[in-house]
Structures are given as C-alpha cells and as structure tokens.
Amino acid sequence: MSDKLLPLSHCLIAQKPSDAAVAYHAGQYYSAGQFANTVSYWGDKLQAQPFQHYALYTEDAYPFAVLLFALLHAGKQIRIPGNNRPGTAEQLSPDCQLLGDWQNGECFDYCLEASASSNRPLSPLNPLESQLVIFTSGSTGQAKPIVKCLNQFQLEIATLEKHWGEQLGDAAALATVSHQHIYGLLFRVLWPLSAGRCFHSQAYINPETLVNAIQHESAYWIASPAHLKRLDQASPWEGIAKLKAIFSSGGALPEQAAEQILNDGRQAVIEVYGSSETGGIAWRRQSMTAAWTLFSGMRLSCIDGKWFLHSPYLEIPPSPPFSKGGGEAFSSFITEESSFSPRKHLSPLEKGGSVGIQLDDQITLLDDGRFMLHGRSDRIVKIEEKRLSLVELEQRLMSEPWVDDAHALVITHHRDVVAAAVVLSPQGLEQEAIQGRNRLIRQLRKALEQWFEAVVLPRKWLFVNTMPLTIQGKINQPLLKSLLDFDNRRLPQALTLELTPEGVRLGLKVPEDLLYFPDHFPSYPILPGVVQLAWVEHFGKLFFVIDKPFAQLEVVKFTQVIQPGDELTLALDWKEAPGKLYFNFSSERGTHSSGRMVYEGKE
After folding, report:
1. Reported confidence tier of residue 124, pLDDT bands at 50, 70, 90
2. In what order do the strands lie in the sheet containing 219-223?
3. Quick one: three-class SS letters along 457-471?
4. Which H/E stretch holds residue 330?
C-alpha cells in the first residue's frame, strides 16, 4: 500500500491534522476532527441500541460516511441497499433497522455538529472482520447480496492510488453517481478518506453545478456514461478542462461522447470496468485504445466457453451471521440459498492465491493480455448508471393481478429507456376497458415504484395478446424493438398487438407532429393515402416474410380521413400463395381505408 494512504481501519484515529478538510457538506467544510467526534457520538448511540442489523441509506455522502463508520465501530452488521423505495424498506425492515433517509415521512437528524468526544476512544477496526453488504441486481431477478470487508476495499484503493494518485494530487472528489453503489462508495467516499482528499457530499447531477461548485478548487469528476453522453456544445467546457481527471464506470462510454470530451474538454476519460461482485477489473482511455487493460494481479481464463476472473480482491471472508436474530422475510428476499457470499460463482480453479469468479460479459482476449468487451450475456442493464435486472422488472409486473406475462427491453437512443411488452390478464383487460390504457399504465408504474427508482421504470409500453415468438420459440426481440422504437416523425405509435391465426391487428396512434401534416394541409391536416400505404408495407414486412417485389394495388378505398391524434386499428393478413397483403385501417368511426397490396402474383 502507498505510504500516502491511511488504512480505512485507522482513518478515524488521529494520524492526520484534525483540521484537515474531510468533506464539504451543506455549504461548509467538515474537518477530520469533526468527523471523528461525530462518528464517536453516533458509535456510542448505536452501540447502546439492542439491534444488530442496520440498512443504511442517505442522499448525501458525508452523513453516509459518518453513519457507516459509526456502525462499523459499534460492531453492527451493515446492509447498503441501492435505493430507498418502499418495497425495499418493507423487505429489509423485518430483519434490520432502517437508518438514514427512508421514505417513511420522518426527517432524520444526523447531528453532524457533535463536538463532545466520546468517553470511549475509537480503536482501530479489524480490516478483515469489519464487513458490510452491498446489493446488486441478480440475473435471476433476485437482489444479490455481496459481502465486502474493509481489506478488500483497501486493496482496490491501493491499486487506484498507484495508477492515478499522483495525477489527482490533493484534488477534491465530486460525483454525479450515488455512494449507495460500489463505484460511488469506493471512488466518492472510501478512496478520498484513505488518501486524505476532501469529498463533496452533494451529488452534482449536471456539469454546470459541478463546475460552479469547485470555483478555484482543484477537483476531479466521478461520473457515468449516462451523464457524460449528455454533454453538448453548451456544456461548461472551460471548467471541465480544468479538472484533474474524469472517471466513468457503470457501462462503456460511447465512442462519440469520449471524442467530444477529448476535443472540447481536453479530457481523456478514464473508464473503469468492474462489478459489485468483482470490484475493479480493468481500465482504458478510448483516446488511446478501445481495449481494456487489466489491473495488476488480475488474470482472465476461459473454461468451456465461459470467462473467469482471477483476482486478489476475491478472497471472501466468512459470511457474518445474518440469519441469527432476524426474520425470514429478508432471507427470502435475498436468495433461496440464504447465502451472502458469491462463492457459488467461484471457479474450482485457483492460481497464485487468486480465486476465480465467472464473468457475465462476452470477451475477446488479445495477444498482449488486453481484451475487448462485447456486452453482457445476462439481462442486467444500466439505465442512467442505475443497474437494473430486466428479469426482476418482469417478475414485479407479473406479480400484479392485471398482468399475465411481461417482457422488458432497452431502447437505445441519446438516453436509454426501458420498454415493456405486457400480456394483460382478464382483470387487466377489464380495467383497461373501464379506465383506459393511460390510467392503467400509470397504476402499473405506481406499483413498480415500490421497488424501482423512477429513472428505470418503463417509458414505452405495448399491450399484446401473446408474446411474439421466433421459429425457435424465443421471444421475438427484434420485432418488439421495431414496434417500440419508432420514429414518431414518420411512423405511428404502436399501442397494442394482437396476433391471430388469420393475421395481425395493431392498435396505432397517429402522432400529431408527423412530417406529412404541415403540407397536407396546413389548415386541415390529414394523413396522405400514400403514407397509409407506406405504413401497411412497413408493418407487413415486420410480421410476414414478403420477399417479392411490389407489383400493384387492388381494390384500394379511402373512405374517411385520418387526422393527428387519431387512434386506429390496422388489420393485416398475408396470403402467401397469391402474394397479397390485405389491410384495413379502422377506428370507432368505422373503416378509413382498405385494400390489397400485391407482390408479384395473382390468384
């Protein structure tokens, strides 16, 4: 470990000036002495309580650091959930005390101005026994708990400091990411505490507030791809250029965003690849290479087509006795095996003292030891740096009485959004008929809010009578993406999909800002017939194998105009032998247009 690093186990013992700034919170700096006093105050308070298990959640990072170390010094068992949603609180609370900013209507008093020292001096923590549990979305939909001890964090900190400590100097840590997840916890709180750098307690969601906050202070930015790819020409590039470094994790930074930050902000973003289970694995600067470089001590191996990481960070300490003195609700929430250790993912191979853990990523190993990433092999995604299990989202939807089946997917644009295809139950169909589609969607979103943060909730919805399948019997994701990821300047919004033996029935809504309305006609906009035919062909080729060239139209009739905002039903039926696509646009007012499109064939 670097001589400049203070072990986390000793960071509250007076080994640095008591007036050195530890954190900037709520408009003022807090010194090392104030930090130690407040931790001591809370440590005594918490130690006097009969509870052993605590779930810690705070909005700001400095109160989090205070309570985290107070719990450690009080010998408590700590769980750090990724959010403070009511559903999370409900499943945690039977087994442990909720501490911090929970949505229970109470305002928590952090008492950060505690000046009186405890009668009991703080002693060094045991870095192997001082443990906490963080959570990450499991590929099965269950929240996966992961035990981490201070020694594991310290090993990572030593690696980070070795790589970038000299570059950062005494710069302050400012972040747009939450400390409730491992990346923010490590980079935003624990690394600064160990290295003697000040960290800002508030999360700076946009770059303007971040640049304004530092003024003349030397600082570095702990960011995510979700925030960095939103930077544009109006961003405060002069202030960004003055940062000591920009770190990014939680997913690959788009190449275009990396180039823009380099060109306009003169910053080569340092991307860190890793996970809650593994810790940091590798890093890269896209301005230098697209390949990833392993951190010291890491090794990759491939066994039966599966990649394993061998890392010194993965020496797992014995799991704390969480099953003692608690209820069963939280145990079932965690895993059927009730294990807090990722040992079941470990490879039977060990080499050089490093344990192997299976990775969920697709990898190509290069000759020089670096590697390329090709995405995850499971269904864990990142939305605005929030890790989301699509499986869990589907399971939560299907637990509602209105939903029989659900499939979640991600639509990738400037901002990634979650979409959901849902098969409504008879009760759900009845509710939709009574109260309408939009109100039913609002109720489904409200139910999901018990478990998920708003940013990861589905924003696009498609109600289907059955999940569309490929010939291999798998859900037809390309079809669903084509329906949900529509260009609302040229195509209608797909609301519903009904697959029948006779053909397809699509519920469509005509966008009000279609390209075709201003010219046809400005004072009375209607959808041109040629556009209706283009829509028929577009959707026809989505659902049917039409590999013949268009030949002619037959019995086409336009009987009622279609206007902005209209909701339509498009019925499609493909007759392969004669090569004819039958169509009918209708609404509550009756048929709007109908006919046949012929593709090189006659009856």
Report:
1. very high
2. 28-31, 21-25, 199-203, 172-175, 219-223, 246-248, 270-275, 279-284, 293-294
3. CCCEEEEECCCCECC
4. helix 329-334
The residues, ordered by sequence, that sit 6+ positions from 179 with a Cβ below 8 Å of its Cβ are: 61, 64, 185, 188, 189
At 210-268, the pLDDT tens digits run 999 987 889 999 998 878 988 989 999 999 999 999 999 987 888 888 999 999 999 99
Is 190's pLDDT higher than 90? yes
Q: What is the DSSP string of 128-192?
A: TT-EEEEEEE-TTSSEEEEEEEHHHHHHHHHHHHHHHHHHHTTPEEEESS-TTSHHHIIIIIIHH
pLDDT band per the 50, 70, 90 thresholds, residue 1 = very low
Question: What is the rounded distance in angstroms from the CA atom of residue 585 to the CA atom of residue 591?
Answer: 6
Residue-wise pLDDT tens digits, 485-530: 988 889 999 999 999 888 999 999 999 989 888 776 777 899 999 9
Residue type at position 15: Q
Residue with tokens 């505690």: 114
Can you say whether residue 66 is alpha, beta or left, with left for phi > 0 and alpha for psi between -120 and 50 degrees?
A: alpha
How far apart (Å, rounded) are the C-alpha atoms in residues 29 and 497?
57
**Residue found under tokens 């109470």:** 106
- How many Cβ atoms are within 10 Å of 154's Cβ, its own excluded? 20
The pLDDT > 90 percentage for the chain reads 62
Q: Which amino acid is at 219?
A: A
DSSP, collapsed to helix, strand or coil, labels residue 199 as strand
Distance CA 437, CA 468 (A): 21
At a CB cut-off of 8 Å and minimum separation 6, what does 339 contact?
Answer: 319
Is 259:236 a contact under the CB 8 Å cutoff?
A: no
Helix or strand holding residue 420 (H, E): strand 417-424
Residue 142: predicted pLDDT = 56
* Helix, strand, coil tally for the chain in percent (to 5): 30, 30, 40
User: What contacts 302, CB < 8 A, 6 or more positions away?
Assistant: 308, 363, 365
pLDDT per residue as tens digits for the range 140-152: 445 678 999 999 9
List pLDDT tens digits, range 30-71. 999 999 999 999 999 999 999 999 999 999 999 999 999 999
Half-sphere exposure of 169 (CA within 13 A, CB side): 8
Among 198, 201, 38, smallest CA distance to 113 is for 38
Written as one letter, the residue type at 505 is R
pTM of the model: 0.69
Pick the most confident of 304-313, 346-355, 435-444.
435-444
Whether the Cβ atoms of residue 104 and residue 50 lie closer than 8 Å to each other: no
Tell me the longest C-alpha to C-alpha distance in the chain.
Answer: 96
Report the pLDDT value the prediction gives residue 352, as an integer from 0 to 100.
42
Q: Read off φ and ψ for residue 60, nearest 5 degrees.
A: -105, 155
Q: What is the DSSP letter of 454?
A: G
| Residue recorded with tokens 């810690």 | 56
The two structure tokens encoding residue 69: 């170390």
> What string of DSSP letters covers 363-383?
EEE-TTS-EEEEEESSSEEEE
Instruction: Please determine, for residue 334, whether its predicted confidence score (pLDDT) is greater than 90.
Output: no
Q: Tell me if residue 575 falls in helix, strand or coil.
A: strand
Instruction: Give the Cα-Cα-Cα angle 77, 83, 86 (nearest 5 degrees).
Output: 95
- Burial tier of 364 (Cβ tally within 10 Å: 0-12, 13-18, 19+): exposed
Residue 146 phi/psi, 5-degree rounding, is -135, 125
